[in-house]
Amino acid sequence: MAGFKEVEALGAAQLAATGGKPDTELKARIAGLSGQKIAQILYTSGTTSFPKGAMVCHGPLLQNNFYAVDCLKLTTDDRYLSCVPLFTATGTFYTLAMWLSGATMVIVDQFEPRLFCEMVERERITVSFFVDTIVQDLKSFSDLERYDLSSLRTGTGAPLPTESFHWVTQTMGVPQLVSAYGMSETSNAVVRTRCDDPLEKRANTNGRPVDGVRIRITDVETNEPLPNGQIGEICISGYVLMKGYYKRPDEDRKVFDEQGWLHSGDLGELDPDGYLIYRGRVKEMIKPGGFNVATQEIEQFLKTYPGVRQAVVVGVPDRRLGEVGYAYIEVHPGAEVSAEQLQSYCREHIASYKVPRYVEFTSAWPLTGSQKIRKLELKARAASKLESEVNCT
């Protein structure tokens, strides 16, 4: 079966025959470890900037993932389907969580809707990972109902739009789906919802801070703390923080402030109960006419229009307003949607400065290994296209 390889287990004698190190050396290396020694270098996804190597430590990785096991209520009965690369923060999270809980991991080398459904049915998968591109592919998969997906119990949406979260819990039948927010620089998630949180919280927020972590929201321009309910930059403090970027001390100074808080470069707000709501990247914020606008807000609104499967908004230069929105749209197969219809819909329901000036339809998205859309590439493509159009006139 494409994308799935049977792996033969090796016994201790066979492993030793392959050149494994003697037990004395293993024990010596274990004795030399501490929780604050670097365990791995996790490279950022590169969706909005060049990837950087975050140096994360043994202690935070283990402690954070012990907490994750509790949030997801993982046991030896669970079976996790991994269809995103293991070298990411998500890959590390699920690998450690499975080991710590004694659950089973089933690995495929890529995500593809039919393969995903086949493996869930065949292996009686109970846990998986969902980003919105994966959800949209599953929603468009015409044979979805042919498969028995009833074994699915939980998983993580990181993070998912509310509509997509409800689709996974209701249509796919994953009742204990949770949400999370984190980054390579923080040994994975810094906030999580729990299986037993109310559905409203799991679908509309990313959760409360994990034990030992503090979150605050600051004004993007002044760095002053903001009250709950206001959107600003997500700042993080606690044991989860990385040692720094590998051989990039100049980049360390850009993200850590004098008090040791890590500035995530992400936008968010805290609700009245202290749950975090992710609102996109600071670099993805656009400023048409001097107004700060989170592109995620426009994207989520565009996806409420009938027939729109995916929407991504980036900022492009404008002589009069300084910057305006450029929307990439993918429609569902057979749907007929025009740029004029979308812009008219926006003008009727949202502020005029949030209406995308340009609309381009596409079905091919540049993706990272973890199935996230590379917005930086789309932004460069939009700017290049507009510049070439100007030069041709």
What does the model show?
The structure is a single chain. The protein is α/β, with parallel strands linked by helices. The protein has 2 domains: 37-279, ANL, N-terminal domain (Rossmann fold, 3-Layer(aba) Sandwich); 285-392, ANL, C-terminal domain (GMP Synthetase, Chain A, domain 3, 2-Layer Sandwich). The chain has 12 helices and 17 strands. The chain has helices at residues 12-17, 23-31, 58-72, 89-101, 113-123, 132-139, 162-170, 199-204, 249-255, 295-302, 339-349, 375-392, and strands spanning 38-43, 53-57, 79-82, 104-107, 127-130, 154-157, 178-183, 188-192, 208-209, 213-218, 232-238, 244-245, 262-270, 276-281, 308-318, 322-331, 358-361. A 5-stranded mixed sheet has the order 5-6-7-8-9. The radius of gyration is 22 Å and the shape is globular. It starts with 11 loop residues before the first helix and ends with a helix.
Q: What is the name of the CATH topology of the largest domain?
A: Rossmann fold
Using the CA coordinates, give the radius of gyration. 22 Å
CATH architecture of the largest domain: 3-Layer(aba) Sandwich
| CATH class descriptor of the largest domain | Alpha Beta
Query: What structural category arises from helix and sheet content?
Result: alpha/beta
- First CA to last CA: what distance? 53 Å
Q: Which series of helices and strands comes N to C?
A: HHEEHEHEHEHEHEEHEEEEHEEHEEHEH
